[in-house]
Design a protein that fits this description.
The chain has 145 residues and is mostly helical. The chain is built from six helices and two strands, in the order H-H-H-H-E-E-H-H. The protein has a single domain, classed as Arc Repressor Mutant, subunit A (Orthogonal Bundle). One of its GO terms (molecular function) is DNA binding.
Length: 145
Amino acid sequence: MDHYTRDNFSLTQSVGFAINKARNLLVAEVDTALKDLGITSQQMGILLSMRGGVTATPFELSKLLGIDTGLMTRMLDKLEDKGLLERSRSLEDRRVVNLNLTVQGEELAARLPDIVPVVLNARLKKFTKSEFKELRRLLYKFLED
C-alpha cells in the first residue's frame, strides 16, 4: 500500500522528516548530557555495544549502528586516543581487528545507563505506558525489511 503520492507528499508532513527531526533532537540532547564525559552519542553507542558483548569488531559495530566503515574507523581512533578502547589483530585471522574496552572505557560505559535514560524519559514524559509500547513497536516495524 502506498501512503504517499506525488499529490499528497509534503516534506514537513512526511514520516521520514519526523523521524529525522526526532533523531536530531535526541542526538543533541544526549550529546549535551554526555559532554562532561567527553564523548558523543555515537561514541556512546560503540561503548555500550562493546560493554554488552554485542559486538567485538569494527565490522560488527558498523553493521549494528548503521555507520559506514570509514566513519567507524575515525570514531574508533578517537576512542582509542582517549584511552577507552584497544584494538588487536585476531590470532586466527590477521585481517580481523578485535576491540576491547580498557578499564577506563569499562568505567565510563558503566556510567552511561545512569545518564541516557534521563534524557529519553524527559522526551517521553508525555507518553502513557501503552503509547510508549506502541511507539516502540511501530518504530521496530518501520525498521523491518
